[in-house]
Design brief:
This protein is mostly helical. It folds into 4 domains: 4-24 and 35-260, no CATH class; 285-321 and 425-450; 330-422; 457-484 and 496-570. The chain is 75% helix and 0% strand. It is built from 25 helices and no strands. Helix 3 (56-71) runs antiparallel to helix 12, helix 5 runs parallel beside helix 12 (226-251) and helix 15 (330-351) packs antiparallel against helix 16. The chain is elongated.
Length: 579
């Protein structure tokens, strides 16, 4: 069953295959009330069944049913009725497109599996600790006498190289198949090229590229029945190739060891460690209870003293709406000002003999801070300080100035109080901000721990690192793809070759593009600009109609548009293994 990536790659072919022969609007006379109407219905049923993903059993059942219809005695309209001809050609076309997709999917999945295994061996080879752990998993006795670390590393290196060779072989076949879209359309239009196309697919899938494109005169003989060719390709060629590929990996022991082999040291060590931990916890139960009690008290104190109480203060501040005072009360300011007014009026009445009108005017002056009459009395008194001190006027003037200074200080504090009140809500939030910061860090740690410590935004660093590696390899393949010698080539041929992509490079590109599409469909948010734009660029990379130069521009656009949102700039500096 082809994967979603292959369906996306081949879907345009299924939607744009050549139209069926024109069916007359008025059926011929012999077709009216014909017993072959049941045949037409069966053909339509077979055609509708091919809308499902193609499988070997579906191909076999469809070919068998269609063969029985052709061989049914007493029925002649299958070869004479234009509508039956159109239905049969549509069925054959869908079968051929489905098998073409199955061949691409087989090569793609085998190449991707080989690459995944090669990456696993590369991760083991890259770390000395991983090599020692792998050696312990495979042979614990041998690893404790001699520790042949370098020999084990060479084994990992050899298996990685062999898997990369297999990957390149399947990738080259994948590149050839992907480049045969034009031949597929020609095989659907021209029955004489049908067998040549099917044979080419068979040879490519089996790895015999030289026989896949023979000279034209080799197929000059009569062609076999298309249905039998399709059945042979599905049941014999594809099945045999899958078995051969599996046997190749198993016989050379290139696959990673079984899961039981990889985890047996953990299964052996974890139970004793668990029992030891339980015994240690039981023997230290008093200390653990004390630690739990301290942790509970600390948590309660933090929540109550640093979170709930500051939040209550914030709510009180919001509810009060800036009313009240922080440093000094308004009543105290008014009392001191009234006292200064009475002292000034008393001095003016006793020593300056002010009339009631003058006292009212002086009262207004004192309220705005103007003590000119009092200061004039003081200026006269300091000319005769001893006499003024004895009569008492000098002391009264001094005390009035002291009261004036007290009033000025109160008014200054009132201004500061007003400023503080305007920022009271800010101070309240500043007080509770550290608690929120601690809760944010603790909550993020718990979420990461609950999710296994691997998942994060857009799949986490591991998945993003794999995408970064696929993007880098895509650009590297487009830059350093294999090129033929340039002698005996003109300028036009040279430019055309520079823009073309070799089958091996095309296959390796499709492996990377399949990884990019799988990542986008799995980890990027649905119905987002990031996902839709990323998938559009991935579709451009998979488009065989675009040359090397055009795809280089697509890669540059992807680095420019998605590098910052996906955090590719930090991947190279992070020590994250690619999976």
């Amino acid at each position: 069953m082809p994967s979603a990536f292959v369906d996306h790659l081949v879907k345009p072919l299924a939607l744009s295959h050549p139209p069926s022969p024109t069916i007359p609007s008025t059926p011929p006379a012999y077709a009216l009330n014909s017993p072959d109407s049941a045949t037409k219905e069966q053909l339509q049923f077979l055609l509708a069944g091919l809308n499902e993903p193609l499988s070997a059993s579906l191909v076999q059942d469809t070919v068998g049913s269609l063969t029985q219809l052709e061989r049914r005695p007493g029925i002649s309209t299958l070869g004479a009725d234009p509508e039956n001809i159109a239905l049969k050609e549509a069925i054959v076309s869908k079968l051929l497109i489905g098998l073409y997709a199955e061949g691409i999917d087989g090569c793609l999945s085998q190449a991707a599996d080989a690459e995944t295994e090669a990456e696993w061996w590369a991760d083991i080879e890259r770390s000395r600790l991983s090599v020692v752990w792998y050696l312990l998993q495979m042979d614990p006795v041998f690893s404790i006498t001699k520790l042949p670390i370098e020999l084990t590393r060479q084994e990992c290196h050899f298996k990685r190289k062999e898997l990369e060779k297999i990957r390149d072989q399947r990738a080259e076949a994948l590149g050839y198949l992907a480049g045969m879209r034009g031949e597929l359309t020609q095989a659907i239009k021209a029955p004489e090229s049908f067998q040549s196309f099917v044979n080419s697919i068979a040879y490519i899938v089996q790895g015999d590229i030289q026989k896949a494109f023979p000279p034209v005169d080799i197929h000059a003989g009569p062609s076999q029945e298309p249905l039998q060719e399709i059945l042979h390709l599905s049941t014999a060629v594809f099945s045999k190739q899958r078995a051969t590929h599996k046997h190749l990996l198993d016989s050379r022991q290139l696959l990673r060891p079984s899961r039981l082999t990889l985890i047996w040291p953990k299964l052996l060590l974890l139970p004793p460690l668990f029992i030891f931990a339980l015994r240690s916890a039981y023997s230290s139960r008093a200390t653990l209870r004390e630690l739990a009690s301290d942790a509970k008290a600390t948590a309660e104190g933090f929540i109550r003293g640093w979170l709930l109480d500051p939040l209550k203060d914030v709510l009180k501040t919001v509810r009060a709406g800036g009313e009240g005072s922080i440093i000094i009360q308004k009543e105290a300011i008014a009392a001191n000002l009234a006292s200064l007014e009475r002292m000034s009026l008393s001095l003016a009445k006793d020593h300056l003999n002010y009339t009631p009108e003058q006292l009212v005017s002086l009262s207004s002056q004192v309220k705005v801070g103007d003590l000119t009459p009092v200061l004039q009395v003081y200026e006269e008194d300091i000319k005769r300080p001893l006499k003024s001190a004895i009569t008492g006027t000098l002391l009264r003037s001094v005390f009035i100035q002291v009261q004036k200074a007290k009033v000025d200080i109160d008014q200054t504090l009132a201004g500061i109080d007003k400023l503080l009140k305007s920022q009271e809500l800010t101070f309240a939030f500043v007080g509770v901000a550290p608690a929120f910061g601690v809760l944010y860090l603790l909550g993020g740690s718990l979420v990461t721990l609950w999710g296994g410590g691997k998942e994060g935004q857009y799949g986490g660093k591991g998945k993003i690192s794999g995408v970064w590696s696929a993007m880098r390899r895509t650009e590297r393949l487009l830059i350093s793809q294999p090129r033929a010698h340039r002698h005996n080539r003109g300028k036009e041929e040279d430019e055309q070759h520079a823009s073309s992509i070799s089958p091996l490079t095309a296959g390796l590109l499709l492996i990377s593009v399949a990884r990019l599409r799988t990542y986008a469909e799995t980890h990027l948010p649905l119905r987002s600009r990031l996902r839709e734009g990323f998938l559009e660029d991935v579709g451009d990379l998979a488009n065989p109609d675009l040359g090397r130069t055009d795809k280089m521009r697509v890669v540059e656009r992807m680095w420019r548009c998605w590098g910052e949102p996906l955090g590719w700039g930090q991947i190279a500096s992070d020590n994250v293994s690619v999976r």
